[in-house]
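If you are new to this repository, start here. Below is one unmodified record pulled from the training split, so you can see the exact layout before writing a loader.
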Amino acid sequence: MYMNPLQLCVLDLNQLLHHEHYDSKRVKRLSDNLQKADVLRNPPIVTEWQDKYVILDGATRVRALNILNCPHIVVQLVKQESQDTNLSTWNHIVQTVDLGDLFDAIKSIPGDNIKISSVSDIDPSPSSSGTLFTIVARDKQIYMVQGSQDNSLKHLELSNAVNAYTRLTNVIRTLDSDVEIIQNKVQSFSALIKFTAFTMQEILDSAISHNLLPAGVTRFLIANRIIGINMPLNILFSNKSLSQKNEWLNEIIKKKLHQNKVRHYTEPVIVVED
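And here is the target side for that same chain:
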């Protein structure tokens, strides 16, 4: 398949694999918005792996089109080993929740393997294999949340724990890790959740095995990310073949490049969404 200079292509939705769960409320909201707008503004980011395509970013968009029974989707294809693809994690700000209630919710997940200990109470060299995340309270006390030492259960326990506290209150994703700064921004701040780092191989294995991570934890920073393609949904929903849709997309990209309608911004930008 010919790939245009922007590395955009049309894929069968059935070829895409999630590495994380999706937020059903966000999916419903986006599917409604897609029907009204009738365009896909920003393509999801995927990487090829074992004859499938793992979604690195854009799980909500993929699921929203899936429930609308759209057969195809436009994606930006990146290589996982590229220096332009950087993997990190979000932190979660928990609001308006008593710390004791937060602990109780996390410890009540199935399996009875979860332990929460203050850092001062933990062995100086705990096994990292069982660590799910840390909690930083308002008073800056740090607590470590640990699960089973069976590494095969880590993603399940992590998802259950995140689901447990997100059911208590709204959670804000943030890159901030300084509690004082967060408290000045969020008056209802209760605690900060900080996750351990993941490797790209863990992400790929999670997708292939369907052993998914919780929503809103992994963060991919993609250099030269494509936004604003405004792909008409009627094209994606049409009965045209996959190759015909890719030919149409490549012609559109060629035309926009010729008309100088593709701009490359190297400086950071702020996007305000609806």
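Two things worth knowing about this chain: The helical segments are 24-37, 59-67, 99-107, 154-166, 179-185, 200-209, 233-237, 242-258. The CA atoms of residues 34 and 170 lie 24 Å apart.
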